[in-house]
Write a structure and sequence with these properties.
Number of helices: 3
Helix content: 10-25%
Largest sheet: 3 strands, mixed
Distance between the termini: 30 Å
Radius of gyration: 17 Å
C-alpha cells in the first residue's frame, strides 16, 4: 500500500491518544486525520463526517469518509477495486480486535472450505459482523 498509494507511513506503538500526540509532533503541519469508523461501530452512532478531536486529545479534524457505508458496500469497494486487505477476512473473520478476543464468525462456518469458514464478504446479516468478538 505504501508503494502503490505513495503513502508516507509512520508507525507509532502504543495507545491511539499517545500515538497521535507523538504524530502531531512529527508532522506539525497535519491538521486532519482519516478515521475508518462506521456508524454501526462501537461509539459510531453520534459521529458526523467532520469532527474536531475531543479537547483532551491532540487537535486534529477527524474525517470519517466511510461513516455511512454498509458492510456490503465496504466489501464491494474492496473487491471491485482490488484493494489489499488482511488475509484473516478470507478465513471467516469479520471484525478484528485483539488476538485474545477475535475469532472467525460462526455465521460463516462452512466445513467444505479448507479453513472451515467462508470469507467475510459472504456475511449476509451485517448486524452479525461482530458476533465473533468477545
Amino acid at each position: 500500500c505504501v508503494r502503490n498509494y505513495k503513502i508516507d507511513l509512520v508507525t507509532i506503538e502504543g495507545p491511539i491518544k499517545q500515538a497521535l500526540e507523538k504524530y502531531s509532533k512529527l508532522r506539525p503541519n497535519v491538521k486532519a486525520i482519516f478515521v475508518g469508523t462506521r456508524r454501526n461501530d462501537p461509539h459510531g452512532g453520534n459521529l458526523s463526517k467532520f469532527m474536531q478531536t475531543d479537547p483532551d486529545w491532540p487537535p486534529f479534524m477527524r474525517v470519517h469518509p466511510i461513516l455511512d457505508w454498509r458492510y456490503a458496500t465496504i466489501w464491494e469497494f474492496l473487491r471491485t477495486l482490488k484493494v489489499p486487505y488482511c488475509i484473516l477476512y478470507d478465513k471467516g473473520y469479520t471484525s478484528l480486535g485483539g488476538t485474545d478476543n477475535t475469532r472467525p464468525n460462526p455465521d460463516l462456518r462452512n466445513p467444505t472450505q479448507p479453513c472451515g469458514y467462508d470469507p467475510a464478504w459472504k456475511l449476509v446479516d451485517e448486524n452479525r459482523e461482530r458476533s465473533s468478538r468477545e
